Amino acid sequence: MLYWLVKSEPSSWSWQDQVSQKLTNWDGVRNFQARNYLKQMQLGDLCFFYHSVVGKQIMGIVKVSKTYMPDPSDESGKFGMVQMSYVEPLKNPVSLEIIKANQALQDLPLLKQSRLSVMPITPEQWQTIIALAE
Question: Scanning 20, 49, 64, 113, which has its CA 20 to 30 A from the CA of 35?
Fold first, then answer.
């Protein structure tokens, strides 16, 4: 299993939307590197759901419930999507400030490529963030 962080602006798709809908297509990605990460996702992979722009914090966990497929909103046919399902909220959201302050997370792609909407997380980074949420 692989671990990921996916970002969404709360004004377009919030954690609360994910909680209430349970299942969503993770579509609208228009960055080639993020698209390539979507292609690498496997069934059952776990993802942190991160509120970007407003809030800037990891809210909870979703999992890949359908692997890469065409994104019908992309007329060019270059981009795809995966399906995500709700797993659970974090006990306490983990803010960007907390992430930046933690030495074990200094190589997190969120800090190095802040505009990227889909990014891999190492198992060690995953466990560090889970511990920070306690």
Answer: 20
